[in-house]
Amino acid sequence: MLRRRLTRLFGGDERRVDSRTVYVGNRSSSDTEGFIPPKFCDNRIVSSKYTVWNFLPKNLFEQFRRIANFYFLIIFLVQVIVDTPTSPVTSGLPLFFVITVTAIKQGYEDWLRHKADNEVNKYLVTVLEDGQRIRKESEKIKVGDVVEVEENETFPCDLILLQSSRDDETCFVTTASLDGESNHKTHYTVPDAVKDLESLCATIECEQPQPDLYKFVGRMHIYKNDQETLVRSLGPENLLLKGATLKNTQKICGVAVYTGMETKMALNYQGKSQKRSVVEKSINAFLLVYLFILVSKALLCTILKYVSQSKHGQDEPWYNEKTKKEKDTNLYLKMFTDFLSFMVLFNFIIPVSMYVTVEMQKFLGSFFITWDRDFFDNEIKEGALVNTSDLNEELGQVEYVFTDKTGTLTQNNMEFIECCIDGFQYKHRDASTELDGFCVTDGPVSKLQQKAGREKEELFLRALCLCHTVQVKESTEQCLNLVDGLGIDREMPQTQEQGGFIASSPDEIALVKGAMRYGFTFLGLESKTMKILNRKNDVERYELLHVLNFDPVRRRMSVIVRSSSGDTLLFCKGADSSIFPRVRQEEVERIRLHVERNATEGYRTLCVAYKLLSAGEFEQADAGLREARLALQDREEKLMAVYNQVETGMSLIGATAVEDRLQEEAAETMEALQGAGMKVWVLTGDKMETAKSTCYACRLFQKNTELLELTVRTLDDEVRRREEKLHDLLLEYHKKAVQDAPPVKAGITRSWSSASQDYGFIIDGASLSMILNSSPDSSNNRYKYLLLQICQNCTSVLCCRMAPLQKAQIVKMVKNSKGSPITLSIGDGANDVSMILEAHVGIGIKGKEGRQAVRNSDYAIPKLKHLKKLLLAHGHLYYVRIAHLVQYFFYKNLCFILPQFLYQIFCGYSQQPLYDAAYLTMYNICFTSMPILAYSLLEQHTCIEVLLDNATLYREIAKNAMLRWRLFLYWTVLGLFHGLLFFFGVWYLFQNPALQDNGQVFGNWSYGTIVFTVLVFTVTLKLALDTRHWTWINHFVIWGSLAFYMFFSFFWGGIIWPFLRQQRLYFVFANMLSSVSAWLVIILLILLSLLPEILLVVFRRPRGPRSRQKAVVDSIEYCHLTSLQKVTPFKHPDCTRHTTLLQVFEGRRVMARQEKQQQQLLELKVRTTANWTGGGLPSPWTMVVSVRTLRKR
């Protein structure tokens, strides 16, 4: 039986599936049988990356994967081994600092993960051993242990339910942390299991651990003295999953079958891997270029040295004769040694200190997210949290956003809005007698219940009270779900006052509460009897005969009940597309208009129908249902046939509208993300209908969006196999969304013209499994390719009924697609952990479903609305800052080392340094490090308010725009220009042999000091010119760094240091500044170097780059080209001044009546807006001319 069920569940796969045998209570099934307890993994959960033993080697290995770190390790070893012109300290000290800082930061982050793991593993649980209740740590649970769990506790491992405190041998659990559904699910004990667990002798055969949350196959052998062994089948309804929470049940007992990393929750957990940002990858690419430049320089100098020494008298001049050891040295070895010496001399072109600055920028920058007051939530009294600071800049490069639904987009708080009975609208919020426009009555009515007639109203309300799986909560304390404010003008029953409702779906509770508002109250289910309190305060009793459960294919559910008068009734509710074909068509039109209107308003709609069953019809249905439920093969198909047979010929009563409340500003946030060029995918374990309604409410699906559905329902075809239908649908959707779609304008995610069609794509977990998990042949690879292309060309994508591992598979598929787009995943529960870990950036929401997502995320925020500022403001600014930091570091190091290279031409390639060793060591550490660090932390090239108001500005930096090769080439050329100007400008000065007042000449150290002084001032003032947002910190570090350089140079050269063998700069700096010629050349070279930047600032027209204009135009187009009065005035980048010119435009806009004049006005407004966003304000004369021009129009 086990093999047959496995074969059916896995689609006919003939591979043998191994099973495990679990001994309940770890007791042998027979006293005479030798018992060897099987070994399984323990119950420890591990999410950390390092241990005490492997931290050092593993962390060092990961750090030396960086090209710069590995390179400087080699350089350091060369300096130690080979006699080089510079000290090993110049390379070893910065490298040691980088490695130490990074190791401490990563070690601290992993320590936090260890701490979180210990909270779970050290949690105390109750285990039953030899009739005693023993408290143990969770990590000590073994497979086979009988565990006791009390109400509101989470299950410590995967358990088979053996005993429950409820009389009906059931228990209720919530699996919100696993699949996102916070509703209650019913689980059942194993039939015929003895109540005395101490005397229970049984074994369980079940499948090996696998990650599917909704599948479980096993059987239990119950051994009784002198009786035949009982065998009972086990399914998902008997399995309690780790991470789920026990609800509405005092306590249960279960046997552990899967523990630790073998539980379904752990198998859906993606291992934490090292995430690397796109900026780090760009740095590595740039480093390779500069490494090539370095090797080329060293190789060229080595060749030129030996070419020059090949001339007579150059190899061994009279003043520098070779020693005997030098003469005996092998020529090729000496050439290789010289090559290494040149490598060491020029190695500062590789900016190892950049990694120190980047690490500091990321670490300190993360505090700005934590300190942001806009992220503080008064409800939970917490703000944002940064778990991984390595990805700050990645927040500005997101192209795909994958979001969970329950708890992320919605509050999972259903509210009954209205209903329609026999074509008449009933709104509980509106106590007036207003009738909607779809219905006609004979005149005004005074009470709502008079619209459709009393008989129809009561029949509809009875259907709402009976057709559900709701149960009354048994609680001793006030429940959060307490029904209040229902507007019922009579005393509520005691049951509802002290407790609330629980159900498998939150909208069922909303419908039951909606019926209570109109006088019908569900009192509960007792021994298969459903009780209702009607308007007359009479209790009606109905015997529950059968429940025809909801499934995504039928999209409806039914109950069969028998009233006290003996009538057998079938009540059915479901989606309109599922109900309408099964009722009388003359009844449909009266309800259809209401359903369509409610759907367009974003409400969840359900239609309600009923049928009076004759005795013969019920007997036939009852026999068919009992036979199908006992079938071992094709059980689902047989049940479906009976369902379809009995649910025909019904009468339509009415429809309901329920609202699933969205998170605060959820729709605005999604719209802003799409305006920024991101594509939003919703990945949820919830039902398709629920998720689709949420997508409409969040404006991910619009009214004119054509939905392409690839689900089990669309794949069901009686004529063709599912694979053939899948192939045809993929080709059809690909032709629609990809081949026949017009070319999309770059950067626009949604088209507003009526000529083009927006598409939305819907896929469920079963269909995705057919595409992703099939045999890897050419056809399946093509299916995956088609699916990816369809999804990428759709406005939004909805993936429903997804297991946690499938969410990660979706993210991985997009992440590894062409172009390697940057992905972001956001969720609030443990079911979202896998996709959070798989995406480039993982965001956890501090919601109500535990903190698993927060612990495993890179960033955590209290609410979804905070994602907008996190990406559009913080992400944008972090990326711009660090991109400028990287380009600036390469630029200033090229300026630094190019004169050193040119100097070798004039010193006979003798490896003579141009700069003093102190300057070599402190250039990147002290003289130029603090200004760029302050810039990378505080710079705001555009005001935060502007970034939030204009989401399209995010597109300017998309796809790593500021670290592309074109800009890298610009900075490299700028560095070459400045380096050549520094060296040859000073060289031209030194053509005058007497530069001092006493007629003495400057030496080589004076030459290098002048070059170095010009270098430090130029690169620092270049950064000052690039700074738009000045603070006192910027002023302090920029002018302070220059002052510190002057002070250090005077101090270093003005004292005789006893620990130095030779003091090269003694009084050099003071003598240099005593020369008027030196002052003149320093000032002149600084001005010449910065002249292009100064001219650009002075003569730049007050308008931003064309991309900025385009962003503003796109933002107006994205907002449906709304009226100009809705566009808020921009602020100047310093955020201290406002302009009123737009208000003048608005006052005169009414005069532009013709379309041409309106277009001219729009162009004028956009042009002026672009001027302001470009960093300058229009002059008063421009404002006067603009107003006069407008008046003429």
Automatic annotation (TrEMBL):
GO terms for biological process: phospholipid translocation. InterPro entries: ATPase_P-typ_cyto_dom_N (IPR023299), ATPase_P-typ_P_site (IPR018303), ATPase_P-typ_TM_dom_sf (IPR023298), ATPase_P-typ_transduc_dom_A_sf (IPR008250), ATPase_P-type_domA (IPR059000), HAD-like_sf (IPR036412), HAD_sf (IPR023214), P-type_ATPase_IV (IPR006539). The active site is at D404. Residues 124-264 form the P-type ATPase A domain. One of its GO terms (molecular function) is ATP binding. The keyword Nucleus does not apply. Mg(2+) binds at D404, T406, D828, D832. Its cofactor is Mg(2+). Keywords: ATP-binding, Cell membrane, Endoplasmic reticulum, Endosome, Lipid transport, Magnesium, Membrane, Metal-binding, Nucleotide-binding, Phosphoprotein, Translocase, Transmembrane, Transmembrane helix, Transport. It holds the Pfam family PhoLip_ATPase_C. Its EC number is 7.6.2.1. One of its GO terms (cellular component) is endoplasmic reticulum membrane. Gene3D superfamilies: Calcium-transporting ATPase, cytoplasmic domain N, Calcium-transporting ATPase, cytoplasmic transduction domain A, HAD superfamily/HAD-like. ATP binds at D404, K405, T406, E508, F550, K573, R604, T684, G685, D686, R801, K807, N831, D832. It is a multi-pass membrane protein. The chain crosses the membrane at residues 64-82, 285-307, 339-358, 967-990, 1005-1024, 1036-1057, 1077-1099. It is found in: Cell membrane; Early endosome; Endoplasmic reticulum membrane; Membrane. Residues 37-91 form the P-type ATPase N-terminal domain. Coiled coil: none annotated. It catalyses: a 1,2-diacyl-sn-glycero-3-phospho-L-serine(out) + ATP + H2O = a 1,2-diacyl-sn-glycero-3-phospho-L-serine(in) + ADP + phosphate + H(+); a 1,2-diacyl-sn-glycero-3-phosphoethanolamine(out) + ATP + H2O = a 1,2-diacyl-sn-glycero-3-phosphoethanolamine(in) + ADP + phosphate + H(+); ATP + H2O + phospholipidSide 1 = ADP + phosphate + phospholipidSide 2. Residues 854-1101 form the P-type ATPase C-terminal domain. Belongs to the cation transport ATPase (P-type) (TC 3.A.3) family. Type IV subfamily. This is Phospholipid-transporting ATPase.
